[in-house]
């Protein structure tokens, strides 16, 4: 059984949470495994928080230490899946919040790529093929191809163009 303290003003959301199987609603934060709120609770010693917010309020909740952020209209199934994860201290973000973070923050720190991979990324930004990358860097074609694959993987990109766009957003390459 998961104990949840609610700090919500919307009775519909409160009823949806209270009706979840395996969830007990408690008033005392000391007895709660998770707090579900509309903003990050400022009470000292509060358990991990799941904040139901969108947009700027969601990002502010993350900055304040929320472990999870879902939209206020999250389904009962999503809430049931997320509550135990947040109670264990893991972070959960809705796709909308995650998209806001990727647009505002670098998906990969500058140190995420090796110096050689950064050179490869710069050549990708210039439109170089694997063959050109190999020639310019004095590598075999297969090594150049492996570096390109590593850059795509580390940036979470699905294509060469996506890697260049993500690299540009992260400040790794200038266009």
Shape descriptor reads elongated
Number of strands: 6
Total separate domains: 2
- DSSP helix fraction: 40-55%
Distance from N terminus to C terminus (CA atoms, Å) equals 53 Å
Summarize the structure.
The chain is α/β, with parallel strands linked by helices. The protein is built from eight helices and six strands.
Describe this structure as you would to a colleague:
This protein has 175 residues and is α/β, with parallel strands linked by helices. It folds into 2 domains: 103 residues, Rossmann fold (3-Layer(aba) Sandwich); 60 residues, Winged helix-like DNA-binding domain superfamily/Winged helix DNA-binding domain (Arc Repressor Mutant, subunit A, Orthogonal Bundle), CATH 1.10.10. The protein is 47% helix and 13% strand. The protein has a 6-stranded parallel sheet with strand order 2-1-3-4-5-6, sandwiched between helices. Helix 3 links the parallel strand 5 and strand 6. It is elongated.
């Amino acid at each position: 059984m998961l104990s949840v303290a609610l700090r919500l003003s919307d009775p519909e959301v409160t009823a949806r949470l209270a009706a979840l199987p395996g969830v007990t609603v408690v008033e005392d934060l000391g007895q709660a495994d998770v707090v579900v709120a509309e903003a990050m609770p400022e009470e000292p010693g509060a358990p991990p928080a799941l904040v139901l917010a969108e947009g700027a309020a969601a990002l502010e909740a993350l900055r304040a230490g929320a472990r999870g952020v879902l939209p206020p209209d999250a389904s009962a199934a999503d809430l049931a899946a997320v509550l135990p994860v947040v109670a264990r201290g893991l972070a959960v973000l809705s796709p909308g919040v995650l998209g806001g973070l990727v647009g505002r923050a670098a998906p990969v720190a500058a140190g995420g790529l090796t110096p050689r991979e950064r050179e490869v990324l710069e050549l990708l930004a210039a439109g170089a093929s694997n063959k050109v990358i190999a020639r310019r860097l004095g590598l075999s074609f297969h090594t150049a191809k492996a570096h390109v694959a590593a850059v795509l993987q580390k940036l979470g990109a699905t294509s060469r163009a996506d890697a260049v766009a993500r690299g540009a957003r992260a400040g790794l390459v200038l266009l």
